[in-house]
Specification:
The chain has a five-stranded mixed sheet with strand order 3-2-1-4-5, covered by helices on one side. It is built from three helices and five strands; from the N terminus they run αβββαβαβ. By secondary structure, it is α/β, with parallel strands linked by helices.
Length: 138
């Protein structure tokens, strides 16, 4: 009996058409089911670069609350209790109610003390509370 030998031209190949059909169907499915969500953003008022502005006459004094690396609170170079921040700020606001508050905080301080300081300033009725990093000269 004679055997037929397959030639190289008769080799079977893999038909890619069904796989491509499935890929396109999946692509269409993902495009259709994707929900496009508009993310919430926060508008930030950037300071102007106008150099012609003159500083205001008689600016209000700045009230500085400092928090060191041991989470000790200082106002006017004296140590105070974090719960006494409000009373001290109210005393200084009696002089000028427009005064802004600056909370200087060391990067190693406990966050709870910073939050307490900002909350106490807001409770004292301060219209503007700023937070800055306390940079020490080591």
């Amino acid at each position: 009996m004679r055997r037929k030998h397959r030639s190289e031209e008769d080799e079977t190949g893999i038909d890619m058409t069904p796989m491509l059909d499935i890929v396109f169907i999946m692509l269409i499915f993902f495009i259709v089911t994707t929900s496009f969500v508009k993310e919430d953003t926060v508008e930030i008022a950037r300071p102007s670069t106008n150099q012609d502005s003159t500083p205001p006459k008689n600016p209000p004094p700045l009230i500085v609350v400092s928090i060191d690396n041991q989470s000790n609170v200082f106002m006017e170079e004296r140590s105070i209790d974090p719960e006494a921040i409000r009373a001290n700020i109210e005393t200084q606001l009696a002089v000028d109610p427009r005064s802004p508050v600056l909370v200087r905080v060391h990067e190693d301080a406990i966050n709870d003390v910073l939050v307490t300081a900002v909350d106490q300033a807001n409770a004292a009725g301060v219209s503007k509370v700023n937070v800055a990093r306390w940079i020490t000269a080591d």
